[in-house]
Design a protein that fits this description.
The chain is of the alpha+beta class and 507 residues long. The protein contains 20 helices and nine strands. The protein has helices at 2-23, 26-29, 53-64, 86-95, 123-133, 139-150, 153-165, 173-190, 204-213, 217-228, 230-235, 243-263, 270-280, 297-328, 330-345, 353-358, 360-372, 406-410, 429-434, 453-470, and strands at 70-75, 78-83, 171-172, 378-382, 387-388, 395-396, 401-405, 471-475, 499-504.
Length: 507
């Protein structure tokens, strides 16, 4: 019996090794330049434990960028094609978009309805939703929603003043940034007051959001495996969003829909535009109903939820790192403050929508922060039909994942000399014009870029302008320097947090 068991184990081991050998020959058998992994985790062994996901993508990019415009690698055991050439990148994202219109992100409309949002859905369903939602993020609509954002400015000032400036307590940037973005997005996405600055308790919505984005190394692996083997995941009814999270958001959204519809409540926010889509098929109240444009309650819920999820983490992360970079470079901080106060004086001494649009140096700081610490460190696209790479005889098979390292490109010294250096002047109009237009892609590019990028920029810039107008920010020694990345999260975070000393400024 022992001999049979040992023989069986050995047999399975040999079969598995043969499978791995065959699997990891995928790209070379097709004539593609490729990596040579030798473990079941492919090129991602140790990721989340010894190295951050973003750094690993960049490492692969740097190993091949001077040799080839593309190469094959293995996201665990899933063959993935990496793009290193910016012209080919533009071709994939824009010119030949019809081959790569899906992101290849897992969603399960039936078992996990909140995952069926515009970021993940595919084909005609995505095109319809994109057309429906695009008008909600125009500059005109951003101006329409701005007063909902600006209402949170005084709350932010009072909170920082009371808890840090007056007491001398050390401020954790991420916590304050998360409270601010939760307050703003909760109001815009759901039309509810989150009361994120209430220190007597942590609002449930913030606890849930923090739980979602504070995943373990295993959680990150689960996400990639589910996304890599979607048919199996759907068969097994696997979820990306926990049931208690779904129940919380579904209940909150249902109550808000019922309240607004019963009481004919109209607010200048994203949720109101989604309600118009649900009831009238158009976000415009002065246009006739459009039956084809109508969305279901579940679709409304999914779009509201992703608006919160996406905006909460990306905006709070960007705001936190921007504060750190400004605190580390007091001369830049003072230059931004001077601009804020100068422009503010031209607009009734208010940080209005128009005033923010005129703060060009603040925008450069925002752009440089996203270059150094992009919250989304990698873009993915799914090949929906066989694709012949231009000027080659190589064909990318249908169903192949395409990977583009945002972090790697943004920190490429051949594109950005001394990439570890914080320099907002990289984003003057003159310097931007010198670079390839696809050398900076924090929001993606092409028809499937981030639909909410204007909103994200608006709330972060407003938060930064409000803080700098009222407070001096300095790095506290509690901050680990140089920055060490937290490895166990898919997003960008500083190990140990970013901590600041806060001083109230005279008006």
């Amino acid at each position: 019996m022992l001999l049979i068991i040992l023989t069986s184990i050995l047999g399975f081991a040999l079969l598995f090794l043969a499978f791995l050998r065959h699997r990891f020959s995928y790209w070379k058998n097709r004539g593609f330049p490729s990596t040579s992994p030798c473990t079941p985790l492919g090129d991602f062994a140790g990721v989340g434990i010894k190295m951050h996901y973003h750094v690993k993508y960049a490492q692969l990019y740097n190993a091949f960028k001077k040799k080839t415009k593309f190469f094959g690698a293995f996201l665990y055991m899933k063959p993935t094609l990496f793009i290193t050439d910016l012209d080919l990148l533009r071709t994939v994202l824009v010119k030949d978009f019809h081959y790569f219109e899906d992101r290849g992100v897992y969603y399960n409309e039936k078992e996990d309805p909140l995952t069926a949002h515009i970021f993940a859905i595919e084909g005609e369903k995505w095109r319809k939703m994109r057309n429906n939602l695009s008008p909600t993020f125009t500059s005109g609509k951003m101006k329409y929603m701005f007063h909902t954002i600006s209402d949170k400015g005084q709350v932010l000032i009072d909170y920082i003043d009371k808890h840090f400036a007056k007491t001398g307590a050390v401020m954790e940037g991420k916590d304050v940034a998360q409270r601010f973005t939760a307050d703003v997005i909760g109001s815009c996405a759901f039309g509810v007051e989150v009361h994120a600055f209430d220190t007597t308790k942590v609002p449930e919505i913030i606890k849930i959001a923090k739980g979602i984005f504070s995943d373990s190394a295993f959680g990150g692996m689960y996400f990639f495996l589910v996304s890599s083997y979607q048919s199996l995941a759907r068969f097994l009814k696997l979820r990306l969003i926990a049931k208690y999270v779904e129940d919380y958001f579904m209940t909150m959204i249902k109550e808000n829909v019922e309240y607004r519809e019963t009481n004919c409540v109209v607010r200048a926010d994203f949720f109101n535009m989604l309600l118009n889509l649900k009831n009238r098929g158009t976000i415009f109240e002065d246009k006739p109903e459009n039956e084809e444009g109508k969305i279901t309650f579940k679709e409304l819920a999914a779009e509201s939820a992703v608006f919160f999820f996406a905006g909460f983490e990306t905006s709070s992360s960007t705001m936190n790192f921007a504060l750190y970079l400004l605190a580390s470079h007091p001369e830049v901080q003072e230059k931004v403050r001077a601009e804020v106060r100068r422009v503010k004086a031209l607009h009734d001494n208010k940080i209005s929508y128009e005033a923010l649009m005129e703060m060009k140096y603040l925008t450069q700081v925002f752009d440089e922060t996203l270059r150094m610490y992009p919250p989304v460190g990698n873009l993915s696209r799914n090949t929906i039909r066989d694709y012949k790479i231009p000027d080659t005889d190589l064909v990318v098979p249908q169903g192949t994942m395409i990977s583009i390292t945002v972090y790697g490109i943004h920190n490429d010294p051949d594109i950005y000399p001394e990439p570890e250096k914080f320099d907002p002047d990289r984003f003057t109009p003159e310097e931007v014009a010198k670079r390839h237009p696809y050398a900076y892609i924090p929001f993606g590019k092409g028809p499937r870029d981030c639909i909410g990028n204007r909103f994200g920029m608006l709330q972060v810039k407003f938060g930064l302008a409000t803080i700098l107008d009222n407070f001096k920010v300095e790095v506290n020694p509690k901050t680990i320097q140089p920055i060490v990345r937290e490895l166990k999260t898919r997003n960008v975070a500083a190990k140990g947090g970013l901590w600041f000393n806060i001083t109230r400024l005279e008006d």
